[in-house]
Design goal:
membrane; 5'-nucleotidase,  domain 2; about 20% helix; Bifunctional UDP-sugar hydrolase/5'-nucleotidase; Purple Acid Phosphatase, chain A, domain 2; 35 strands; single chain; hydrolase activity; 5'-Nucleotdase_C_sf; transmembrane; alpha/beta
């Protein structure tokens, strides 16, 4: 049995002596004093998702209090009640701030050791660098046991790690069963680092060990009280999100009632609920948010018979706590660790990498504060381009970046007195990508890339239903947001050229994505894989060397497009057409600057609409507009006007001859406020001016002349013919139409209509019809998204236009 009874050495000698002497903190727990004779009161203090926030970020209620302040709170409870346990629910390390990150989270582990952490669940970030890193580097340094009952050996239900740990206080054995989100494999960690592992259901595994720990068999490690430390949680503080049929609701209702409390994590939510277990008994279900901003407090009263009598719960602010321990030794020890870590980080972090001209931000939710991993972001696209550039020597053409790998924004505003606006330091860059992934290149077909893009729509039931990939410069795609799963993507282009499904493209992704992380299994199917050995942070450093000043990208790499279905005979004059667009703006942009979007065909603007910048939470649909127009021209079934006669007939004929027209099928072109255009594979008939022809051979186009050019004759004597370039009615260049009376009316031999030649007001402008690449038509509703590629032009020496 992989049991673990905590052998932790307790540094409570000083506290015990104080208790014996009657020197207690003023904040002694009242119920401990009021407990009946023979009862034991146990206080359990917990945190979750600490993520290396060892430095204080301020005194506000929503700021990390720092490890030293947390140490003081924990110590104050120990002084008030020696039967105190300090527990964590995972993600102690990983996605950390720079002070801890720069030393691979060693300062965080040391600080938690100094606080005498008793036990911790395994979070997904404990496995950021794989199982060997957890069992080696992390557990070798940590003085507490890590527990998880449902990370199992593949093909079995045998736990791969210690499933539970017993902590004894006052003669009472408290059993902590660990569990980890079932999304861990393959979604949240690099599959390559957890080979041979799998996820078993949380409920069945926890219930298995709840039974074993209470079955009366000493060899199974008996426990008097059971607490579940589960690295999974409700998405919000609402009670409804912690109950019902969702992933966490199944845990709260399904975990055995032998478990007296559920302490949760992972979702960074804050709540303190009472929820009935399977037998109807209410039990605490809590989570403290994240980063050590709050702490949880369970208080258990256990009778002389070792049976639980009462249990209460609360979630309190660390910054808001007035608890001060009499013994400051643990606080001082932690402060020393943090101070030393900060000094080292300050030296490395202060190094300048480059400058930015504006914010590089992640997408945001509708509150314009919380991160939205489902939205296209300026930062995501920028980092993808950084990684493409870093592997360009390996032939990389496109790079993709997972949104979960971006942990903070890169801001223009100064963060300190010695940090000028716009300057990016090593520390600021490191905090954006703290995972130290390497960059991997691989060959992918157009079909595999399309499959990867389709996987942005995540499996059903996940907290984040959509994950938006950042994409590098030059790559773009369109999609139908309402299509069936697997059928969303309608077109892909690279530098304006369509990507066919059987094309092969050299793609760069980080090592996390390369093995299918975040449920992007298509990236694991690439061929000719090669690890560049370049760490993502180093790629950022190198990019600033090559580009000392970075301007954030403004173009949309993905746009939702849905048009009115095209009739079998195509659109005709009089038909009403609607083009619905979405994902036209970044959610982090100023909504007042959203602007408007238009649709045109040829030179004719058909419709224009303001862009609605309203943010759609968890999705990428912000920036919506619907363009509706009627195809110009008279409908085919419209009753014709009465035929003109006499002078009216001749006037009509002359007008038609003076401005001949032709009808061509022009593609619809959508223009965004930035000038970015989207050329749709949907055409409408538009009347355009016809080319002039040689009157002696109507099938031969004639080079137009400037009708304002008088030739080389005397400009002061209009009767003197010039020696200009021959026009359509002047074959000898004398400036007078052959066979005419010298008036220049263009009549040749008396058989050509007026204005057929010389004085036709023809501008000479070419009418350019955008081509629709055949490869795009492999995809339903194909659309070509054309992007301005100034940055790529600078890097590759090419000239690209919209």
């Amino acid at each position: 049995m992989n049991a673990h009874t905590s052998p932790r050495r307790r540094r409570l000698a000083g506290a015990s002596a104080l208790v014996a002497a009657g020197v207690l903190s003023a904040f002694a727990v009242p119920s401990a004093a009021l407990a009946a004779e023979g009862d034991t009161t146990i206080d359990i203090i917990d945190v979750n998702d600490f993520h290396g926030r060892i430095e204080s970020e301020g005194t506000a209620a929503d700021k990390a209090a720092g490890a030293a302040k947390l140490a003081g709170v924990v110590q104050s409870y120990r002084e008030a009640n020696p039967n105190t346990i300090f527990a964590s629910v995972g993600d102690n390390v990983g996605a950390s701030t720079f002070t801890s990150l720069i030393q691979q989270d060693a300062p965080t582990i040391d600080a938690l050791n100094a606080m005498d952490l008793d036990v911790s669940a395994i979070g997904n970030h404990e496995l950021d660098k794989g199982q060997d890193d957890l069992t080696g580097r992390i557990e070798d340094r940590a003085e507490w046991p890590y527990v998880s009952s449902n990370i199992v050996r593949a093909g079995t239900t045998d736990p791969a790690f210690t499933p539970w740990s017993i902590v004894e206080r006052g003669g009472v054995k408290v059993g902590f069963i660990g569990a980890t989100t079932e999304d861990l494999i393959p979604g949240l960690v690099s599959p390559g680092g957890v080979q041979g592992l799998a996820m078993a259901p949380i409920v069945s595994q926890v219930n298995r060990y709840a039974d074993e720990l209470t079955d009366g068999k000493a060899e199974n490690g008996e426990a008097d009280v059971l607490v579940l430390l589960v690295h999974e949680g409700a998405t919000t503080s609402a009670l409804s999100d912690a109950t019902g049929t969702g992933a966490f609701g199944k845990i709260t209702s399904g975990v055995s009632s032998k478990v007296s409390a559920i302490v949760s994590a992972h979702t960074h939510a804050t709540y303190d609920h009472e929820i009935a277990g399977p037998d109807g008994t209410l039990r605490p279900v809590i989570q403290t948010g994240s980063y050590g901003v709050n702490y949880g407090h369970l208080q258990l009263t256990v009778g002389a018979d070792k049976k639980l009598k009462t249990i209460t719960s609360e979630v309190q602010s660390v910054n808001g706590s007035s608890r001060v321990p009499a013994d400051q030794s643990s606080v001082q020890a932690v402060s020393g660790i943090v101070t030393a870590a900060k000094a080292k980080a300050d030296v490395e972090g202060a190094k300048k990498l480059g400058d930015i001209t504006a914010d590089l931000r992640r997408a945001v939710q509708s509150d314009r504060k919380a991160e939205n991993r489902g939205g296209e972001s300026v930062l995501g696209n920028y980092i993808a381009e950084v990684q493409r550039a870093a592997t360009s020597r390996q032939g990389s053409q496109v790079a993709f970046m997972n949104p979960g790998g971006l942990r903070t924004d890169m801001l223009f505003a100064s963060s300190g007195a010695n940090d000028p606006d716009g300057q990016v330091t090593y520390k600021e860059a490191a905090l954006v990508q703290p995972f130290a992934n390497t960059l991997v290149t691989q060959d992918m077909t157009g079909q595999q890339i399309k499959d990867a893009l389709e996987q942005q729509w995540q499996p059903d039931g996940l907290e984040r239903p959509f994950l938006k990939l950042g994409v590098s410069d030059g790559f773009a795609y369109t999609y139908d947001p309402d299509a069936a799963r697997g059928s969303h993507i309608t077109a892909m282009t690279l530098d304006g050229d369509a990507i066919a499904l059987d094309d092969t493209v050299k793609v760069t992704v980080n090592s996390f994505l390369s093995t299918g992380g975040d449920n992007f299994a298509a990236f694991a199917s690439g061929t000719n894989k090669a690890d560049s050995g370049t760490v993502d942070l180093q790629a950022q450093v190198d990019y600033f060397v090559a580009n000392p000043v970075v301007t954030p990208p403004t173009d949309q790499r993905a746009v939702g497009v849905v048009t009115t279905p095209v009739p079998a005979e195509g659109f005709q004059p009089g038909d009403e057409v609607s083009v619905s667009l979405s994902s036209l703006v970044f959610s982090s942009d100023d909504p007042a600057a959203a602007g408007s979007v238009s649709v045109s065909a040829g030179d004719v603007v058909l419709a224009e609409s303001a862009i609605d910048p309203t943010i759609v939470d968890k999705r990428d649909e912000q920036g919506r507009a619907t363009l509706t127009f009627t195809v110009p021209g008279a409908p085919a079934d419209e009753t014709p006007a009465a035929e003109p006669t006499g002078d009216a007939l001749r006037a009509t004929a002359l007008a038609a001859e003076a401005a001949p027209t032709a009808t061509t099928d022009e593609p619809l072109v959508v223009t965004l406020p930035s000038g970015q255009t989207i050329t749709l594979a949907v055409t409408v008939p538009i009347e355009t001016a016809a080319e002039p022809t040689d009157p002696t051979d109507p099938t031969t186009p004639v080079e137009p002349t400037d009708p304002a050019d008088p030739g080389t004759g005397d400009p002061t004597d209009p009767t003197t013919p010039g020696a200009g370039v021959p026009g359509a009615g002047d074959t000898d260049g004398d400036g007078v139409a052959d066979g005419s009376d010298g008036t220049g009316n263009g009549v040749a031999d008396g058989d050509q209509p007026d204005t057929a030649g010389g004085d036709l007001a023809y501008t000479g402008a070419d009418l350019v019809v955008p081509g629709i690449a055949a490869g795009v038509l492999l995809l339903a509703g194909a659309v070509a998204l054309v992007l301005a590629r100034r940055k790529r032009a600078e890097q590759d020496g090419t000239v690209l236009t919209d």
